[in-house]
Design goal:
With 392 residues, the chain is an alpha+beta fold. It has three domains: 63 residues; 180 residues; 93 residues, no CATH class. Helix content is 29%, strand content 37%. The strands form three sheets. Strands 1, 2, 4, 5, 8, 9, 10 and 14 form an eight-stranded antiparallel beta sheet that branches. A six-stranded antiparallel beta sheet has the order 3-13-12-11-6-7, with helices on one face. Helix 1 packs antiparallel against helix 3 and helix 1 packs across helix 4. The chain is rod-shaped, with a radius of gyration of 58 Å. About 9% of the residues have low confidence.
Length: 392
């Protein structure tokens, strides 16, 4: 418990208001804690889907002239090299695959276009000075199970003859290369784009091959909806509100147990603490001093002590604060004037002896006081309290 006179004075003045405020704060804190627990934070999260488009080229050829390597009619697929005499025709199959990677499902609702170009290019020092392009494929295949596939067959021998003719024509001026260019366009309403890739088709009298594979891919995400996601609120916030509510109610209990506090007693305690260096505890005889000057407050007594360079004596039995300056006594007491502080305050009600019927003295004992005039006679002078006090 806080041992502070100022705190006691605050409770004496506003204890009821403080208790009510603490109760209100505690209730509000607990209600807020319950609301926070019952109402987690919600966030609107966008649901996205990732779509992917992949295009590549497959090659194949049928053996038309069997030998020790293959038999006639054999099918060759994605060979790194093809023999010219055995398989003079090359089948090129562009393939575009469309899929929703988020749901791991194929996309069939799409449009795909494949275009395949063969381009002769004459160059010198890696700089082109002539080219010739032929379009070998322009198709819009259907999309089934997320796959759009088209195909064209190339007469490789005819391209070899054309290349040899061009090489004879330019001689040593430059070199001739044959490039295969694939352009694939796709559109799924949410994903659209174009794949473009190319490679060199190397032609010789004995064989032909693609220097590199042809492939391209693309992906993108798009929003397909929103979702409300609930997340628990911060545990620190819940703990803080619970602690606030608990401390508020505990504080209310302590305030109620400490009150009621007498305002004047609390104020006097504040003054005693403030002026402790000027106050000494002791006993003040009732006959001290010839003149007794009552002051309105303890502060006034302390002011007199400071001015006269004296100390304030606190007689706790008489409830008296006094400064004795020669024959003059400056004092302050809640009990009133100097004469009313003569005797210590006593709880007379607690000291009264209970009269028990069984203990009533017999009549014989009481009779010895009957008719006695020892303590007074009719011819003795009358005294009143004021005369006795003047004699004292």
């Amino acid at each position: 418990m806080i041992d502070n006179p100022r705190f006691d004075l605050l409770l004496a003045k506003h204890g009821r208001s403080v208790a009510i405020a603490l109760v209100v704060i505690g209730i509000v804190a607990f209600v807020a804690t319950g609301w926070v627990v019952a109402n987690p934070e919600t966030q609107t999260v966008s649901q996205v889907a990732e779509e992917e488009a992949v295009t590549d080229v497959q090659t194949s050829s049928s053996v038309v002239d069997g030998g020790s390597l293959w038999e006639e009619g054999d099918e060759l697929a994605d060979n790194p090299v093809y023999v010219m005499n055995a398989s003079p025709e090359l089948r090129i199959t562009p393939e575009t695959r469309l899929a929703n990677r988020t749901a791991n499902t194929p996309i069939d609702d799409a449009e795909v276009t494949h275009r395949l170009f063969f381009e002769f290019e004459a160059s010198r020092n890696d700089e082109a000075f002539w080219n010739e392009t032929r379009e070998e494929l322009h198709a819009s295949p259907d999309v089934e199970d997320g796959i759009a596939r088209s195909q064209t067959t190339i007469d490789v021998e005819s391209y070899l003859e054309r290349q040899q003719a061009l090489e004879e024509e330019i001689g040593t001026v430059g070199s001739i290369t044959l490039r295969v260019i694939l352009v694939a366009e796709y559109d799924t309403d949410t994903l659209a784009g174009t794949h473009t890739d190319s490679t060199t088709l190397v032609l010789t009298d004995e064989a032909y091959w693609l220097e590199e594979s042809i492939s391209d891919d693309d992906s993108a995400t798009h929003t397909i909806g929103t979702q409300e996601v609930s997340e628990p609120r911060s545990p620190a916030l819940i703990a803080a509100l619970s602690l606030l509510g608990t401390l508020s109610l505990v504080g209310c209990v302590l305030v109620v147990r400490r009150t009621p506090v007498d305002v004047e007693a609390a104020r006097r305690a504040v003054h005693e603490r403030r002026y402790a260096e000027w106050i000494s505890r002791g006993s003040i005889p009732m006959w001290v001093g010839d003149h007794h000057i009552g002051l309105d407050s303890l502060e006034d007594v302390v002011d007199v002590a400071i001015d006269t360079n004296q100390r304030v004596v606190h007689d706790r039995q008489r409830g008296l604060f006094a400064v004795v300056n020669g024959s003059v006594v400056y004092y302050y007491s809640e009990r009133g004037v100097w004469e009313q502080t003569t005797w210590p305050a006593m709880n007379l009600a607690a000291d009264k002896s209970a009269v028990v019927p069984d203990q009533v003295p017999p009549v014989s004992e009481l009779s010895e006081f009957d008719g006695s005039d020892e303590f007074g006679g009719g011819d003795e002078p009358n005294f009143d309290d004021e005369d006795v006090w003047e004699q004292l």
